[in-house]
Amino acid sequence: MRSEHLKRAEELILKYTEERTPIRFLTLLENFTSGYSLRALDKSISTGIVKNKSINHLIFVEDIRFFSLCKHHLMPFYGTVKIAYFPKKSLLGISKFVRIVNHFSRRFQLQEELTQNIANYLHQKLNCPVYTKITATHTCTLLKTSQAINFTTQVFVGDWFDEIRNEVISRT
Ligand SMILES: [Zn+2]
């Protein structure tokens, strides 16, 4: 049944688009689904982790822009990511947060999954409490409703003290 539907989509595309549309589409699709393997990301992140002895307060990284593909409709959703972490033994360079967001964005997924994956990955690499919030517009919803509604998802991963967690909430 799934391949039947895909065949009908293929027929529509071939009927109403240009000769080179399928190859352009494939190239874009391959580019925007290149975030499944973690090997290159792990290598890059390992060079950005810095030992921490003295920093003992919340760190926020805000307004990281991203584009991803919704796995229900294969349509883009896009917006911004906000991350907070409370460092223990490790700090991470700012550009590496952008690298992580770019990497995990390049998958077919739900916004909820992207939010969770970024938080889990950072938690695993830094061994500290991590918060991730995503605010995004989904073009599938935009096309269906003509409304550019913002969806927000957020997750806390790791052991947060109530007081610090409340500080994060008060700033979001
Ligand atoms: Zn969708």
Itemize the secondary structure elements and their pairings.
Blueprint: H1 2-16, H2 21-31, H3 39-46, E1 49-51, E2 59-70, E3 76-85, E4 90-92, H4 94-105, E5 108-109, H5 111-126, E6 130-138, H6 139-145, E7 150-157, H7 162-170
Parallel strand pairs: 2-5
Antiparallel strand pairs: 1-4, 2-3, 3-6, 6-7
Helix pairs in contact: 4-5
Summarize this structure as a short list of keywords or feature phrases.
172 residues; alpha+beta; GTP Cyclohydrolase I, domain 2; 5-stranded mixed sheet; two-stranded antiparallel sheet; 7 helices; 45% helix; elongated; binds zinc ion
What would your notes on this structure say?
- It is a single chain.
- The chain is of the alpha+beta class.
- It has one domain: GTP Cyclohydrolase I, domain 2, CATH 3.30.1130.10.
- It is 45% helix and 27% strand.
- The strands form two sheets. Strands 5-2-3-6-7 form a five-stranded mixed beta sheet. A two-stranded antiparallel ribbon has the order 1-4.
- The protein is elongated, with a radius of gyration of 19 Å.
- The relative contact order is 0.14.
- Bound molecules: zinc ion (ZN).
- Zinc ion is lined by residues 70, 72-73, 75, 138, 140.
